[in-house]
Specification:
single chain, 414 residues, alpha/beta, seven-stranded mixed beta sheet, five-stranded parallel beta sheet, globular
Length: 414
C-alpha cells in the first residue's frame, strides 16, 4: 500500500477525489434532483370506419398536451407522448399497450376507446404493470368490475346511463315494437342489456359477430314479430351495411341508433336512409362559459369544431393524468393513480378546461395546493371502480341533409 507523507501528496489525493465526485454528479445543472419527464400514451382504433373518430380524439389529446406544455409542463418539464393504433382487435390492443409500456416507457395511458379492447388492456397489461389508464369512450357496464388493480378509469359514463335514455327516445318516437341488432362483443352486450332492461314494449333482438359483412338473415329474424323500427347497436362499419340491407329488402325504414353511430360519415354513406333517425351518445354538460372557451380553442387550433362523440372526454382524460402526476410530484404509476380522485372531485380550487385553467392548476399543485378539475365534458368525479358518478347523455338526430343535430341532454347521477 502506498503511503502519502507530504502535504503536496495529500492535497493531490483530495483534489483527485473531488474531481471524481464532480465527474460523477455532472456540472450541477443535471443533478440527482432533476425531475423526470412524464410520458403519456394514446391508444386508439384508427382502422377503417373509425379513422375520423380517432383523429378527432387525437386532436383533443394534442390540444391538452399543448395546454400543459405551454404552462411549463408537468414537474417543470414538457410532457412527451406516444401514439399507437389498437385496431378493433383486442389481441392487437394488448400487444400495442404492452409495447408502449415496455418499449416506449409510458407512465400513463389515454385509451383504449372501445370496451372490447379496454377490458384485456386493463386486466392483462395496465393493471399488472401499475399504469393508470383513462378511456375517453369505453362505456360497457361490464367494465365496472374489471380486475384492474384500480388502475382503470373512464371519462365517459357507463351505458347503465345510456340504455334507459335510448329506450325513452325509442318510446318518444311512438314505437312499441322494435327489432334490435347488437354487436356480440363486450360493448354491444352491455349496451343491449341496459336498453332491454329499460324497454317496456315488444322486442326481437339478434347479436352479430364483429367483422360480419351481410345481415339479411338477422334482419329478417328481428322483423318477424312485426317490428316498426330497428335499433342498431353496432359500430359504423356494420351499421352501414345493416341500414342499406334493411332498406333495400323493405324490412325497415325507421331506425334508432346507439352512441357509436353518431357519425356524419355514416349519414353520407347510406344516402339519406337515416334522415330523421334519432340516437343517443355521451355528451358534455350544458353550455357554459368554460365550455364555450374550450370549443373556441379547439376551432382556433384545427379550423372546425369536433364532429364526433367523446372528443372533449379525450381532452379531460389527458389533463386529469397530467394534473395527477403534478399532484403526486412523481411519474410513478401508483402515486399518480392515488391522486386521480382528489384532483377530479376536490376539495380545492375549481379548475376550468382551458389553457388558463390548466396553467392555474399546475401552479397551485406545484405550490402544494389542491384543485378540483371540472372537465370539458363533465366533472371528473370517480367512484371506487373508476366510473364517473355523474354526467350527461345527449339526444341527437340526422337531419334531412345528413347533418347531425344535437337536441338535448339528460343528466345522470348514481
Amino acid at each position: 500500500m502506498a503511503t502519502f507523507t507530504s502535504t503536496a501528496a495529500r492535497a493531490a489525493l483530495v483534489c483527485a477525489l473531488l474531481l471524481g465526485l464532480v465527474a460523477a454528479c455532472g456540472d450541477g445543472s443535471q443533478g440527482a434532483s432533476a425531475a423526470p419527464t412524464l410520458k403519456l400514451g394514446l391508444l386508439l382504433d384508427f382502422s377503417e370506419g373509425s379513422t375520423e373518430k380517432a383523429r378527432d380524439r387525437e386532436q383533443a389529446f394534442n390540444l391538452a398536451v399543448k395546454h400543459v406544455n405551454a404552462a411549463g409542463g408537468v414537474l417543470g418539464r414538457p410532457i412527451e407522448t406516444v401514439t399507437r393504433d389498437s385496431t378493433r382487435d383486442p389481441v392487437v390492443a394488448v400487444e400495442e399497450a404492452r409495447r408502449m409500456i415496455e418499449e416506449d416507457g409510458i407512465h400513463v395511458l389515454v385509451g383504449p376507446n372501445t370496451s372490447a379492447n379496454s377490458l384485456p388492456v386493463a386486466e392483462q397489461v395496465a393493471g399488472p404493470a401499475g399504469i393508470p389508464v383513462i378511456s375517453p369512450s369505453a362505456s360497457s357496464p361490464l367494465l365496472t368490475d374489471a380486475a384492474d388493480n384500480d388502475f382503470y378509469f373512464r371519462a365517459a359514463l357507463s351505458d347503465i346511463a345510456q340504455g334507459p335514455v335510448l329506450a325513452q327516445v325509442t318510446r318518444d318516437r311512438g314505437f312499441t315494437n322494435v327489432g334490435v341488432v347488437y354487436l356480440d362483443d363486450f360493448w354491444g352486450r352491455g349496451i343491449y342489456e341496459s336498453f332491454a332492461a329499460a324497454w317496456t314494449g315488444a322486442l326481437r333482438a339478434v347479436s352479430v359477430p364483429p367483422g360480419q359483412t351481410t345481415f339479411l338473415s338477422e334482419l329478417r329474424e328481428t322483423a318477424n314479430g312485426g317490428a316498426a323500427a330497428l335499433v342498431v347497436l353496432t359500430f359504423e362499419a356494420e351499421a352501414e351495411v345493416i341500414v342499406r340491407e334493411a332498406v333495400e329488402s323493405g324490412l325497415y325504414e325507421r331506425f334508432i341508433l346507439g352512441g357509436a353511430l353518431k357519425s356524419p360519415t355514416l349519414g353520407a354513406a347510406v344516402g339519406g336512409a337515416l334522415a330523421g333517425a334519432y340516437g343517443t351518445a355521451g355528451a358534455a354538460a350544458p353550455e357554459s362559459a368554460a365550455l364555450a372557451e374550450w370549443d373556441a380553442a379547439f376551432v382556433a387550433e384545427y379550423g372546425k369544431p369536433p364532429e364526433y362523440a367523446y372528443v372533449r372526454e379525450t381532452y379531460d382524460a389527458t389533463i386529469a393524468l397530467a394534473l395527477a402526476a403534478q399532484a403526486a410530484g412523481s411519474v410513478d404509476g401508483t402515486a399518480i393513480r392515488d391522486q386521480l380522485r382528489s384532483i377530479g372531485s376536490g376539495p380545492g380550487t375549481t379548475i376550468a378546461p382551458t389553457a388558463a385553467g390548466v396553467a392555474e392548476a399546475l401552479r397551485i399543485l406545484d405550490e402544494g395546493g389542491a384543485v378540483d378539475y371540472e372537465g370539458a365534458a363533465t366533472a371528473m368525479d370517480w367512484d371506487g371502480n373508476g366510473d364517473l358518478r355523474s354526467g350527461h347523455i345527449g339526444v341527437w338526430r340526422f337531419t334531412q341533409d345528413g347533418r347531425i343535430e344535437d337536441l338535448h341532454t339528460v343528466r345522470f347521477d348514481y
